[in-house]
Design goal:
The chain is of the alpha+beta class and 420 residues long. It has two domains: 16-168 and 228-318, 2-Layer Sandwich (BirA Bifunctional Protein, domain 2); 330-418, Anticodon-binding domain (Rossmann fold, 3-Layer(aba) Sandwich). It has 15 helices and 16 strands. The radius of gyration is 28 Å and the shape is elongated. Bound molecules: adenosine-5'-triphosphate (ATP) and magnesium ion. Adenosine-5'-triphosphate (ATP) binds at residues 81, 112, 114, 119-121, 124, 126, 258, 277, 279-282, 305, 307, 309-310. Homodimer. Belongs to the class-II aminoacyl-tRNA synthetase family. Its EC number is 6.1.1.21. Residues 1-325 form the Aminoacyl-transfer RNA synthetases class-II family profile domain.
Length: 420
């Protein structure tokens, strides 16, 4: 019986892996330029980390986590996002004792039990950054700038940055009161989930995907209109930093973000041509997360997570192609037994000199070897026969122009170093 990959997962085959390598290399370069260093945390963590760090009332914790018991009866969860693990590592490795801020980036698979569709998988991947140890809005602006430079250098132009402030515990307390009063009056027209959230985390009602709920809460009070002085100041400073860097944005007071730990800045980068799953990057500030998962007081952070699959879809929608760099430079075609044997020594010598080269491994006919060379897009083909071998000669063919010339076998490396 055939065994398929689990629902919601995808193989990244050689037809695509070079694109992933390109994106990862580019992301690493940009992060490094901004002073962010890579961190790799485990794929699974204690379930409690996400319950506390992502939040009990979130969709992720309530219905999307891949949680299981291991053979030692421990409650573990495959990471559904990158931030909680990074912050746990920040605390556990005492990074707070270093000079701050701590600027980290990660590249990681994430796991969420969701209904698979285009741009939505059960195993997907994220690029992300976290800057911990300072609550200045300049780091919020830097995270947005980093994401935009990365996306811009990939060739993406049609992007919108939406920013909002979701306040802090101080202003959210009075705002939540206002919100609860407003929502109580709407209780009979809201969906069950909204009615549940109304009490526990009323701001999340704004995020409801049900159209009738949206129609009924058009005049819902929004956090950004009720910020305390400090939050207002933070938001204004963020805007002026973005202005200073010429980064265009608009304020979208309805962004609340799915995760519980956000405070103050929340932002999204949206591709204007991706349809339903249009959010490529989401992030914000999480003053309080470090404490919430058992770390010392006073370490706030800001970061983003970017969906790599969605990024690839966005690139496709924009007709931006990533070229496959894995082209074989030289394919050796042989004629005769002696040539076949000797070609292995020649191949080894080329490879020792860092020239990408290959030859037939299937006993193909002379003609079929040529055909294969064409198929793998080799830049050059070199033909070696038993007779030529004796004369230290081979025929070199440029596969693009069709040009041919005779070359010395003993001089191949020098010959190619000049050509490639
Ligand atoms: P959505 O509203 O689309 O479910 P989200 O708010 O759950 O997104 P975040 O938790 O902010 O998303 O994750 C950051 C990014 O990861 C998203 O902007 C998206 O690009 C990507 N992402 C999230 N869930 C998935 C998924 N199931 N499959 C592929 N990419 C995803
Ligand atoms: Mg989601």
């Amino acid at each position: 019986m055939k065994i398929s990959a689990p629902r919601g997962t995808k193989d990244i085959t050689s037809k695509e892996s070079f694109k992933w390598n390109y994106l990862e290399t580019k992301f690493r370069q940009i992060c490094s330029m901004y002073g962010y260093e890579e961190i790799r945390t485990p794929i699974f963590e204690n379930t409690e980390l996400f319950q506390r760090g992502v939040g009990d009332t979130t969709d992720i914790v309530q219905k999307e986590m891949y949680s299981f018991k291991d053979r030692g009866d421990r409650d573990l969860t495959l990471k559904p996002e990158g931030t909680a693990g990074v912050i746990r590592a920040f605390i556990e490795n005492k990074m707070f004792a270093d000079a701050q801020p701590t600027k980290l980036f990660y590249i990681t698979p994430c796991f969420r039990y969701e209904r698979p569709q285009s741009g939505r998988q059960r195993q997907f991947h994220q690029f992300g950054v976290e800057a911990v140890g300072s609550d200045t809005p300049s780091l919020d602006a830097e995270a947005i700038s980093l994401a935009m430079q990365f996306l811009g250098e990939l060739g993406l132009k049609d992007l919108s940055v939406s920013i909002n402030s979701v306040g802090c515990p101080v202003c959210r307390e009075s705002y939540n009161k206002l919100l609860k009063e407003y929502l109580e009056k709407k209780s009979d027209v809201l969906c069950d989930l909204c009615n549940e959230r109304r009490e526990k985390n009323p701001m999340r009602v704004i995020d409801c995907k049900v159209q009738t709920c949206q129609d009924n809460i058009k005049d819902i009070p929004l956090m950004a209109d009720h910020l305390c002085e400090d939050c207002q100041d933070h938001f204004e400073k963020l805007k002026s930093y973005l202005d200073e860097m010429n980064i265009k944005y608009h304020v979208d007071k309805k962004i609340v973000r799915g995760l519980d730990y956000y405070k103050r800045t929340a932002f999204e980068i949206i591709s204007n041509d991706l349809g339903a799953q249009s959010t490529v990057c989401g992030g914000g500030r999480y003053d309080g997360l470090v404490e919430q998962i058992g770390g010392p007081e006073g370490y706030s952070g800001v970061g983003f997570g970017m969906g790599v699959e969605r990024l690839l879809l966005t690139l496709e929608a924009n007709n931006i192609e990533i070229e496959n760099p894995n082209k074989t430079d030289i394919y050796i075609v042989t004629l005769g037994e002696m040539a076949k044997l000797k070609s292995f020594g020649i191949l080894k010598n080329l490879r020792d000199n860092h020239i990408s080269a290959d030859k037939d491994h299937l006993d193909r006919s002379f003609k079929a070897q040529f055909k294969y060379s064409n198929k793998i897009n080799a830049k050059y083909t070199i033909v070696i026969g038993d007779e030529e071998l004796e004369k230290d000669e081979a025929t070199l063919k440029n596969m693009e122009t069709g040009e041919q010339k005779s070359v010395k076998i003993s001089n191949l490396v020098e010959e190619f170093k000049g050509l490639l």
